[in-house]
Amino acid sequence: MGMNSVKDWKIGTKIGAGFGFILLLMLLVMGIYHTTVVNVVGSYDDLIANDIAIGRLAGDIHVGMLECRRNEKDFLLRQDKKYLDQLTENSNKVVEYAQTLRNLAVANGYEDIKASAEQIIAKITTYRETFARVVDSSEKMGLDHLSGYQGVFGKAAREMEKDLREHAVDDLYLNLLMLRRWEKDYLRTGSRNYQKLLIDTIAAYRNLLAVSPCEPTAKKTQEEAILRYEDAVTALIANYADQGKKQALYEEMRKEAHIIEEAIKSVLIPEVRPLLLELRRLEKNYLLRHDPEESRQVREAMQRLVHQVNGAGISEEHVGAVLARLTEYEQAFDGLVGAYGAMTTDIEQMREVVHQVEPAIASIGALAEEHVNARAGETDRRAAARSKLSLLLGLLSVTLGSVFAVVLVRAITRPLNRAVDFSAKIAEGDLTHSLDIRQQDEVGVLAATLNNMAATLAQMIRKISDSVSTISASSAEMASVSDQMASGSETAVVKSNAVASAAEEMNQNMISVASAMDQASTNVATVAASVEEMNVSIAGIVQNAEKGKVVAERTVAQAQQTSEQVNQLGRDAEEINDVTETIKAISDKTNLLALNATIEAARAGDAGKGFAVVANEIKELAQQTADATGDIARKLMGIQKATIHTVSDISGIANAIGEMNNFISIISDAVDQQNAATAEITENITQAAQGLKEINTNTSQTAQAAALVAKDIADVRDTANETSNSGAQVQQSANELSQMAEQLKQMVQRFRV
Amino acid sequence: MQQAGGKSHRADVTRRFAIFFIDETQLGVDIARVQEINEEPAVTKVPLARDYVRGIMNLRGQIITIIDLRRKMGFTGTALREDKPGLVIVNWNGEQVGLLFDRIGEVIEAAATDIEGAPANICGTRGEFFQGVLTTGKQRIVALLDIDVVLADG
Predict the structure, then answer these.
(1) Phi (first) and psi of residue A210, to 5 degrees
(2) Is A602 on the interface with B (CB under 8 A)?
């Protein structure tokens, strides 16, 4: 029943339902594909965004760290507190980046990156605190040489140096000793030289004392004493000769000198200046390099200085002051060394922290890449699975679509094919079948309509078949009747044609005969007149021919005689030629002889001269003879040639005349015969002319009669022709009708009703 | 003898020459060297002789050699032979030799000044055969034979 209900659907509904189903499946496949692609693209976008963000944050942290390190170095180098602020700021930034990184890692579930970020935060905090301590230490130490331990130390060093300088009076003592020497020398010798040295040395001492850093009390004592000493010396010089005064004054001098010496010795610490210089030099070395070895050297130098102070014979009061200064200096130095040590430790710790942070930063990049790869792999696997699913669905939809297409095509084409077969049978003329398709769709309607059409056609063809039989019989009858009529009229035409052509021919012949007769009469008259004229001419010719014959015979005889004479002349000329040959030979010989004679004469010399003349004459003569003979010979040759020509010409003439004579005889005979014939012709022509006239008259009458006959026959023929044409037309129509009836019959017979 | 004779002639103002023809070339022989001039002789052929030796003849009891001047001097072409060939008998080395030529001419007198040096070649013959060339008034050119040279290499 379900199948039947599908059959009853309209074709459009069937196709629509099928395609709709397949399109729905396709839509499903497309939906799955779309979701997959969106997922994959989204995953990749996330990946790219996270990767970029993590990479960028790692870079920022790295840069921030570098900034911090730079600030640290700047501070250590320049001891400026502003770098502490900068470092704090930068390290805060790094902590901020690390926080962001940590959050990102937590969001993506990257535990290891999160750990790295937290480590970075902790270490950076430590680093910042340590640096703060370093700064603190530096501050304690003194950011410049006037503050902190440095300031204290510097001050102690300066005061110590100032105090010690007051005890560095070696030069004064040396000068005093020199003064005492010159004093003794002068006193002993009284020489002016020593006197001058003494006075000069006193001046030098005073000058030296004026600029000396000597302790003020001692210095004052010395100044007063040296003045008194100088006075004493001046007095001594004045009273040198007075032995009593001299002694007194000398005692005074010694007393003053002693006062000076005591004053010096109360403050003099020998060699204190180089020791101080060495201490300060070593101290600078330490301050420059902070080497523990150098701090030890500083302490040693200090010990040496203390030892020197203690060893000097100066007053207890002075010793105490100097040593107090030295102790102050030492304490300041110790504070400096201690602060520096603490700072160094802090810096070391700071470096350690930095070295822990840097690998953590570096590791973040690698970790991020690992995660990216892992997630990309996951996305690929998911995309592949979805792709497989949608491919399966696609295959399913194609299979279902194909099955449906086959069912649909068969549902439509099978009944249609049956309808086609049925209509093919109708086309062949078989109307006995009917179509059995029980369907409610378009094909069912087509089948019902075809069945109706076949029934109606069968009925119509039965009626046509009856009518055609009747027409066929009638047209056959009509054709046979008209056939008979046509053959009768054709016979009439043929016969009348024969008569007409015979009459026409006769008429033509008559006309020809008549015209020929006219021409003949005219010609005969012309001939008769000509024959008359000819008769007269022929008589003249006969007479002249006779005369010509006589003259010709006479001429021939004369020509023969002339020929004979000329031949004789030729023979004579040949004889003369023989003679001239002989004469030529003789003259040649004579010439030769004359030549030889000339030669002989020449050989004879003067005696032969006369003979030579004669020989020459002979030669000349012989030459002339030869020339003349040559002339004669040439002329004779001419005569002979002329003779031969003449003989041949004459014989030619004789022959011509002979031939002429013959011709004249022939003409004469012919004319005689012609004369007789002409007479006969004349008579016959006259008779012929007469006969011709009669024939002419008869021919004209006959011709007129023949023309009348011909005209009547032509009328008869035309009538018969018309009859024949009409019969033929009738017959043709009957035949055509018969053929049409036949065709119709055949066509109708093709149908099986 | 003949050298002396030649010199005495050269001293004279005029010289005489017997003229004869080979083809149209006029050849002259000093008349002093000429014994006589004759017509074509009856020659007896001599076997194995050189091609320019026609043969020998008997001249009034004396046997003389006949030289065909045309061949001897290397004239090219064939003779026209319109006239009978002539024979000039000359004295050479104390004997007489006959020279055959085409046609007899005449005896002419010529001033020594009219004689010019021979060109290297005259009508295909060797120049050394000629003593000189004589130009006469009628524009005729006569080649003067040096008999001694002509007969020398025989």
Answers:
(1) -60, -40
(2) yes
A495-550 residue pLDDT tens:
656 665 665 666 666 566 666 666 666 766 666 666 667 666 666 666 666 776 77
Question: In this structure, which topology does domain B2-152 adopt according to CATH?
Answer: OB fold (Dihydrolipoamide Acetyltransferase, E2P) (2.40.50)
Residue A23 half-sphere exposure toward CB, CA atoms < 13 A: 6
Q: Do A599 and B106 touch (CB under 8 A)?
A: no
* Residues paired with B96 in a beta bridge: B91
Cα-Cα-Cα-Cα dihedral of A646, A648, A650, A654, to 10°? Answer: 180
For residue B8, give the chain A residue with the closest CA. A605
In sequence order, the 6+-apart residues with CB closer than 8 A to the CB of A630 are A584
At CA B98, angle to CA B97 and CA B101, rounded to 5? 145
Question: Contact A599/B38, CB-based, under 8 Å?
Answer: no
Q: What is the pLDDT of residues A234-278, one digit of tens each?
A: 988 888 888 888 888 889 989 999 999 988 888 888 888 888 889
Measured between CA atoms, how close is A642 to chain B, in angstroms?
26
Tokens of A379: 């996305």
Kindly list the residues from chain A whose CB atom is less than 8 angstroms away from the CB atom of residue B35. 599
Looking at residue A371, its pLDDT comes to 81
Among the partner residues A592, A598, A602, nearest to B104 by beta-carbon distance: A592
Nearest to A357 by CA among A102, A135, A95, A134: A95
Nearest to A309 by CA among A322, A299, A298: A322
